[in-house]
From TrEMBL:
Entry GO CC: cytoplasm
Molecular function terms from GO: glutathione transferase activity
Gene that encodes the chain: LOC123123831
Name of protein: glutathione transferase
GO BP, sorted A to Z: glutathione metabolic process
Amino acid sequence: MAGGDELKLLGSWLSPFATRVKLALTLKGLSYENLEEDLSNKSELLLSSNPVHKKVPVLIHNGASVCESIIILQYIDEAFADIGPSLVPPDPHQCAAARFWAAYIDDKLVIPWVRSFRGKTEEEKSEWMEQTFIAVETLEGALRESSKGKGFFGGDNVGLVDVVLGSLLTWVHATEVMSGTKMFDPAKTPLLAAWMQRFDELDGAKAVMSDVNRMVEFKTRQVQAISVAAASQRQ
């Protein structure tokens, strides 16, 4: 680590939020120690490093902890401004726009998408999924505007929004395998579909993204366990 800095990441292979930190560190060329957390039995280090939310990811830099994935990404970019490519553009307006869309992804895409899986009725699940696709269509427009006809939200290079959205792609692929649902449908959102293929081929993405088959196997077992538990309660 340049300058003697020590970086540790408390995360989980299941967490796309931990994945986005891995992506940022890898793209910046920073070495770090990855500490895999058992989320059903959280370590004392995690609980003491993130006493408020008690969740991953947490980046520990020379003993000081930084929490919340998007905040961590911005911290990495500022703390290591002289190492590797920047995740945010130098122009203040473009930087503000990138931060806006990063927050939009978590608020308007991730939240309804997660709720679409947890809905108690098919109608409720469908309503949340409809909101998810509305967010996807909005992001198609954001990509068109931000990329200026180039490959990524950051233009020629991967930026903050690319990392935030790219961290979800293992879940996007797993969802397609499990349900046939295309989050980024080439017929409806061609720019995002092409962007996804481009992002998947990045060396940095290949190095840190979780295996899709492993994710499908985990989610299949989880769904089966929930079904068994629900059936036993009805007996």
